[in-house]
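To: structure desk
From: M.T.
Subject: fold request, one chain
Message: Could you run this one when you get a chance? Sequence is below, nothing fancy, just the single chain.
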Amino acid sequence: MSALVSAEDLVAEGLDGLVVVDVQWNLTSAAGPPGRDLYTAGHLPGAHHVDLDAELAGPPGPGGRHPLPTAHAVQEAMRRCGVDAGSRVVVYDQGPSYAAARAWWVLRHFGLADVRVLDGGLTAWRAAGGPVTTEVPPPGDGTFEAAVDDSAGALLDADEAAKVARDGILLDARAPERFRGETEPIDPVAGHIPGAVNAPTTDNAGADGRFLAADQLRELFSRMGVRAGQRVGVYCGSGVTAAHEVLALHEAGVDAGLYVGSWSDWITDPTRPVATG
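Reply: Done. Structure tokens follow.
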């Protein structure tokens, strides 16, 4: 079943009975304002803001720039949003759905079953005539209890990612020049995990930020070498855009594991090999 909801369908459906979670976010100040500022400027009615850096990731360090958050951090964030065990949740960001996909993956990993991503985010919502507000709702009093759900998708560490690169297919969701090691604007070491295949997640969406249709995604991943029954893993710089690729694979009918620590974790151990080109 698709994890996406179109803006047009959500406008028609209405927001009653849903918990709407705003995860607008930018990786750097050069990319745009902080997520909280974007939320303050405008968001879906009733939406609560969740901070990707503080609540959907742990502190940066040996596990990478956006390691897995604790269950407690996710639980408290969801309770503040008013989430219960059976809540129907819609997550969105400002448009490219990178942060929204990270939220989708993290929330499912910690046991929230019904999570959809607003395809195209706030930009698509506005284009569909959806209302936008600056009113901040009061904190919710949800009862959600976070607990790891292994059936929601594989969580890979560095050793498992290396094994997938050898025995299955490991996709690198970063831009081609970062994959090849020609440039590295964020992390201190350039290159990629040996055996990985470059599959920029920007290719998974159109110019409007919406995901390609499922049949187009299947064709795209087939060209990358993804085959039925094959073990698939994804990484990026820090586990955000890789979640976007995992979501794209999900839409194409492919289960994929996420190396949450990604490249920023891989390079913390100098004994791990680095490939370029």
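Reply (cont.): The mean pLDDT is 97. Let me know if you need anything else for the meeting.
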